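pinging the channel bc i need a second pair of eyes. not urgent but kinda urgent?? the chain im working w is below, pasted from the shared doc
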Amino acid sequence: MKFIDSLIIAIKSLFANKMRSSLTMLGIIIGVGSVITLVSVGRGAEATITSAYEELGTNVLQVMPQNPEAEESLFSITPGYALPTLTMDDVRALEKIRSVDAVVPVNENFITITTDGESKQAVLHGTTPDYLKVMTYSIASGQFITDHHVGQRANVVVLGNGVATALFGSDEAVGQQVKMKKQRFTVIGVLERKGGAMFGFSFDDIVMVPITTYQTRLFPQQTATGEDAVASISLSIASPELTAEVTKEVEDILRRRHRLEDDDKNDFAVVSPEQVLEIVGQITMILSFFLGAIASISLLVGSIGIMNIMLVSVTERTREIGIRKAVGAKRRDILLQFLLEAAALSFVGGGIGITGGWLVSWGISQIDLGGMKLAATVSPDIVILAFMVSAFIGLASGMYPAMRAARLNPIDALHYE
């Protein structure tokens, strides 16, 4: 019963100073809302990148040039490495691996496509006919690049759905002419809409030309031996369980072809989807931690605000405390009353902050970033953590003022002016 009485007194005291109570709660509201929003954004970024990469296939290995002098890690792998090492002969050698279904060389760059006054920035891939099979695209109209196009170094292009729509208003673009680097290309096909994005670029803002056309007419680049360079090689393997076996075979073949000695480091790297997702997970975990830490500063400020206002309240109500003690209130009753006031401030502020953080996270998840939506969702563990933190802050911030009030001498309190 005493608990209920103390709670009623605490609530009445807070309502007696509505403006002061509201301003005190503001720090907790901002802090809790910020924690929920920023942690949700960090987790949303991880989910978005992971989902986008998984769309590329879990049975696809990537072979890319790597600086042999750099410490081996995914960060030393650079598709546009200044001294490229992969060639079409490497591609043909890898095609002989029995567990590999398809091998696709890819050269990549950004390019501006123009037609009849319209222009569009896109990602250009120079590749071969097996690209569709490995990268899980499909044709909406027309056809894809053929071996004949590759052999003839033809000026033909396949447009992603987003590019076709931007340039021609629809995906009916087969037979149209476009320009890239002042050269005319004939559109022979348009891809089905794929959706999704990675690193800010939509999977539909992509165009493909024969790799030989890319190498000789658009962005020529050669290896140290004078051969046309390949930026990366994608291998579709029969089963994800064969990843380790195929990786070993790829390394053995390329080390022999590149004439590397036993003590030489690889000038290439074989990357599996699991490796990439592991790195993405580590990066986003660190990002979420730092975002949460930054937001927690607001919670610290809010806790200081609660402690400050409770100390002011104790000073203002010294005579009230003295009267309550004089009529029989015990030290624990006074302690409980002020702790409940601090907890009420923190609980209500935390509840409003949780609601606000959820609404902001929902709003962020509705923003379309060039075909990519950030899945900033509030998970139950974040809400529980934020609520527990706000409760702890309320009790911790109110403890000192409550103890100070409980220790007041009733005689001195009654004489306080």
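so The CA atoms of residues 37 and 361 lie 5 Å apart. and The chain has a mean pLDDT of 79. — does that match what u expected or am i reading it wrong
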